[in-house]
Amino acid sequence: xxxxxxRKPRKPHSAQVIRTERLTPHMQRVVLGGEGLADFAADTCTxxxxxxxxSPEGVSYPEPFDLERIREELPREQxxxxxxxxxxxxxxxxxxxxxxxxLHGDEGLAGPWAMRAQPGETVRFTGPGGAYAPDPDADWHxxxxxxxxxxxxxxxxxxxxxxxxxxxxxxxxxPEEEQKIDSDVEVIWLHRGARPVGEALVEAVRxxxxxxxxxxxxxxxxxxxxxxxRQLLRVERGMAREDLSISGYWRLGxxxxxxxxxxxxxxxRIEAEQEGTAPAA
Length: 281
Ligand SMILES: Cc1cc2nc3c(=O)[nH]c(=O)nc-3n(C[C@H](O)[C@H](O)[C@H](O)COP(=O)(O)OP(=O)(O)OC[C@H]3O[C@@H](n4cnc5c(N)ncnc54)[C@H](O)[C@@H]3O)c2cc1C
Fold this sequence. Notes:
Layout: E1 13-24, E2 27-33, E3 49-54, H1 67-73, E4 81-86, E5 89-91, E6 96-102, H2 110-116, E7 122-129, E8 140-145, H3 150-159, E9 166-172, E10 187-191, H4 199-207, E11 215-222, H5 223-236, E12 244-250, H6 256-275
Parallel strand pairs: 8-9, 8-11, 9-10, 11-12
Antiparallel strand pairs: 1-2, 1-7, 2-6, 3-4, 3-7, 5-6
Flavin-adenine dinucleotide binds next to β4, β6, α2 and β12.
């Protein structure tokens, strides 16, 4: 099998941690700033995200940091490890980039890093990428996600005009995780308690009486409930593909490297199962 050439990495940004804030027991805000953000721009999508770069344990890189060179010269296991985070806010005037991290325990890189991040630390990341903003021509909006999608949902709600009709379902561990969002749309907070992640979201969207007209939807979070909601929205409700921004942001039991490596196959299999586009594996 021919090996695909590694993609040319985008030039990374370098920034410093300016301050941190514990928003709720399991959500840590980290605000980045510095000269390295001079050419950063994030204004077209409400799901803009950056790919943070973490050094594998015991690996350090020569300065100036050169991602292209690292990938050319070092074995893959020494390349920086990436973790994806939504641009919760970007303030170009003060050059401040705000990211909100779910604190999901001691496992992983980014969550534990955010919990301990200190002002002055340097971080590197590529991006932003992004693909969604609420369509102003839609009759109504549906936003659904767990904590990992809350930054994008909050940003989307803040961008909606007061006249917009929207339903926003966000599943969180419990009432202590609710956040204040600057929007006229009232978030429907679903408290997970001891239930599996996403179960309450699937239940709530299934029970929703859809208003008349074209809906534009944003559905993201743990991969299993996203799969169920895709079946509901695409197949049972017949939503058009282009009206639906839907993907697994993370997968239970897989770190981001494992999830990203299997995501393409996972998505292809779901599409085949749900839409009969190819035989299911
Ligand atoms: C486009 C995009 C935008 C995203 N935006 C955000 C964001 O703004 N904020 C945010 O917190 N996350 C966001 N995520 C999800 C985040 O990238 C993943 O949760 C990532 O796996 C976290 O990395 P980690 O190093 O903390 O854990 P990893 O090393 O990747 O995983 C370690 C273990 O923790 C589990 N785990 C990972 N994430 C969670 C979670 N949220 N809850 C419970 N268990 C988890 C994994 O299944 C694994 O078992 C986004 C993902 C995408 C694709």
